[in-house]
Amino acid sequence: MRSVQVSQPGMPFLVSNTDRPAPGKKQVLIRVSACGICHSDVFVRDGLFPGLSYPRVPGHEVVGVIEKTGEAVLAWKVGDIVGVGWHGGHCFECDSCRKGDFILCEHSRVTGISFDGGYAEYMVSPEEALARVPDGMAKELAAPLLCAGVTTFNALRHSGAVAGDLVAISGIGGLGHLGIQFASKMGLHTVALSSGKEKEALARSLGAHDYIDLSSGDAVTALNKMGGAKVILVTAPNSELASRLVDGLSPNGNMVLVGVDANPLSVSPLQLIGGRKRISGWPSGDAKDSEETLRFAHQAGVRPMVETYPLEEAEKAYQVMISNKARFRVVLTL
Ligand SMILES: [Zn+2]
Ligand SMILES: [Zn+2]
Fold first, then answer.
1. pLDDT of the residue at 260
2. Could you list the residue range(s) of the whole structural domain that residue 263 is in?
3. pLDDT score recorded for residue 242
4. CATH classification at residue 193
5. 65 and 103 fall within a common domain
6. Are residues 257 and 165 in the same domain?
7. What angle is formed at CA 152 by the lines to CA 299 and CA 39, rounded to 5 degrees?
8. Which of 115, 22, 112 is nearest to 62 (CA)?
9. Centroid of ligand 1 to alpha carbon of 35 (angstroms)
10. How many Å lie between the centroid of ligand 1 and the Cα of residue 306?
11. 12 and 142 fall within a common domain
């Protein structure tokens, strides 16, 4: 089968001919239809994740059809359309797993990092990492929802915001363009924050009710004029901006970080104590979260904006993604 591998950290993606893998007892073989390219694939590309072994096939936004099931797999059958996201399985035995909090498993595995992912014609996945893809959902639109989608959807639905609350989405990129759509479809008063007047039309077309241009005027003042944000979902990787925006939270407001910046946040305890405000983070979600993300998106009409490339052009597609030229998710189609 054709697969795209990283042979060593820092090396370009290489299209190779490899043996089709065989599923173990509690695994399935998937014929891949589409796989998103995520910024986190840089971990594989540049060897930034502890314990990585090479060669490795990246890809954790996988959609495909089950071709074969392991002998102990009961819940899935050949022909099922499934997705596999970042969360690539768990141990069922640690304290988090015993509570059903699989995403926080102490021994969790990551698709395309702990084992080969979806930049290939076929991949093997543990059954507990499978999400059902709704009938009729376009594969290239489902793929990015398995990482960028579940991250924003899950972060929002656990943020404490309820219908009608003011929710600000900072950043309109791979995560933010989905965050705006999810927030709006959840019935939240959705305010998009980005730099430049020209982003406003896009933000509103995605469902934002209001737009704050960070390059003109003070976003904190603007948010406070609206009563303050119950939730600020930070998708833009900009810790300096996030630190400033804390003062735009309403009392009991929650800043939820999903965008990653190497710099520390700089916030005084006084900014949080008086209004009982908090700053939190959110990881992606497990397979059931992914399934619920896909179902909500399909029902509500949340659609990632994607650029598609054939598997053979993985290197070119990755360069488009990593140089921030994509609008907004890049997906390999097979
Ligand atoms: Zn990802
Ligand atoms: Zn566990």
1. 85
2. 150-281
3. 96
4. 3.40.50.720
5. yes
6. yes
7. 115
8. 112
9. 11
10. 14
11. yes
> Which pLDDT does position 326 carry in this prediction?
87
Instruction: Find the 247 Cα to ligand 2 centroid distance in Å.
Output: 37
- Domain end marker among 245, 261, 281: 281
- Across the chain, where does the E strand assignment appear? 2-5, 14-17, 27-37, 62-69, 81-84, 122-126, 130-132, 166-170, 189-194, 210-213, 229-234, 249-257, 278-281, 306-310, 329-333
pLDDT at 105 over 90: yes
Q: How far is the CA of 301 from the centre of ligand 1 (A)?
A: 21
Helical (H) or strand (E) element with 141? helix 139-142
| Radius of gyration, alpha carbons of the chain | 20
Q: Do 84 and 199 lie in a common domain?
A: no
pLDDT score of 228 = 98
Identify the CA nearest to 148 among candidates 231, 230, 271, 60: 60
Q: Are 44 and 52 in contact (CB under 8 A)?
A: yes
Write out the two tokens for 192.
């998009």
**Number of domains observed in the structure of the chain:** 2
CB atoms within 10 A of CB 325: 10
- Could you write out the DSSP letters of every residue in 231-247? EEEE-SS-HHHHHHHGG
